[in-house]
Specification:
Shape: elongated
Mean pLDDT: 84
CATH class of the largest domain: Alpha Beta
Number of strands: 11
Largest sheet: 9 strands, mixed
Strand content: 15-25%
Helix content: 25-40%
Low-confidence stretches: 328-338
Order of helices and strands: HHEHEHEHEHEHHEEEHEHHHEE
């Protein structure tokens, strides 16, 4: 960088020492925080602002609840991604009533404790710069979920996307400055995202939204019946993103209280037939937990040997009883809820 004319190294240092008030606005390299960036969920959810864009009925809320449960309990997200440090969660969902949201929480086995706190439509609207909310964020240092983010837009001109995005950015940064570990925003995509998912189509509105984000993900429904969703990273600021992966909600949410990886992260390539057979197998044992291999073979028209292989890969077995049970990572047979 060229030095301003007439300014030498000596009087540059003198200027700094003679300007203590403005000097406090800046830091030298050695004065900056040297600790590595934090990730509430390793290599997936950074400490800044993350958007999950999707069309309606794409599982945004279910996925956010899965993340919130993992973060507030310290358990692995989707059973595969480490929660680096358990955090408190504030979940703001002005689009859902209290009773309906509680049913979702109970289906997802979100623990009833002080580490997960929420506010629904039944509690009334709240501004992100509300002083009580800021006080809660300062004390709890939580991961804040906004479902959906557009409901917190306070712009007077809703048709001015740029003004709206700038106003939302100010509120998000206000939460961060107050102590929020991370801000997770569920957001709507444009209709064209289904055919061409880009930063511009993933987040409806101004491009300022994606510009402020540290990470942006797009959720695409592969199969509505099983809520089979593909999750693709479209932006990762200062970290190496995971490759796209897929999760399935049915019947897993009712059986296990969470999504299930439709493919292992270290083995991303499964054939369509393999995925379909596994889904049919799991749906069948959910309907009849004591079904025998013979009954399943007849019902699903899948050879017994193939069914045994599917059960092993999916981590289900009979154990010493008659009911199907989830296998633990150590290979011992136990119920998934245990």
């Amino acid at each position: 960088m060229p030095r301003p004319e007439g300014l030498t190294g000596a009087n540059l240092q003198a200027d700094v020492s003679q300007s203590p008030k403005w000097r406090k606005l800046f830091k030298r390299v050695g004065e900056m925080d040297s600790s590595p960036p934090k990730f509430p969920i390793a290599n997936f959810l950074p400490e800044g602002i993350t958007f999950f864009g999707a069309l309606p009925a794409s599982g945004k809320t279910w996925l956010c609840l899965s993340m919130a449960k993992a973060i507030s309990t310290g358990k692995k997200f989707l059973g595969a991604m480490e929660v680096t440090e358990p955090s408190n969660v504030l979940y703001l969902i002005p689009e859902s009533g209290e009773r309906a949201f509680r049913q979702r929480l109970e289906r997802m086995d979100v623990p009833d404790n002080e580490h997960f706190l929420c506010r629904t439509m039944s509690d009334g609207s709240i501004k992100l710069n509300d002083q009580q909310l800021i006080a809660a964020v300062t004390e709890l240092r939580p991961v804040v979920f906004l479902d959906t983010a557009v409901r917190f837009n306070q712009s007077e001109n809703e048709n001015d996307a740029s003004q709206s995005s700038r106003q939302m950015a100010e509120m998000f940064f206000g939460l961060k400055n107050a102590g929020a570990t991370a801000i997770v925003c569920a957001h709507h995509s444009t209709k064209t995202a289904k055919k061409d998912a880009t930063l511009e189509t993933c987040l409806r509105g101004s491009g300022d939204l994606s510009a402020m984000a540290d990470a942006v993900y797009y959720l695409q429904v592969m199969d509505a019946a099983s809520l089979h969703v593909r999750i693709t990273n479209l932006k990762a600021r200062d970290f190496e993103p995971l490759p796209a992966f897929e999760v399935a909600g049915r019947p897993y949410i009712d059986m296990l209280g969470d999504f299930q990886l439709a493919q292992r992260l270290d083995e991303p390539h499964f054939t369509k037939q393999e995925r379909e057979r596994r889904e049919h197998f799991l749906a069948a044992i959910a309907a009849d937990p004591e079904a025998t291999f013979s009954q399943l073979e007849s019902q699903l028209d899948i050879p017994r040997r193939t069914l045994q292989r599917i059960a092993d890969k999916a981590g289900w077995g009979k154990g010493n009883g008659t009911a199907w049970q989830k296998l633990s990572e150590r290979g011992t047979r136990e119920y998934a809820a245990a």
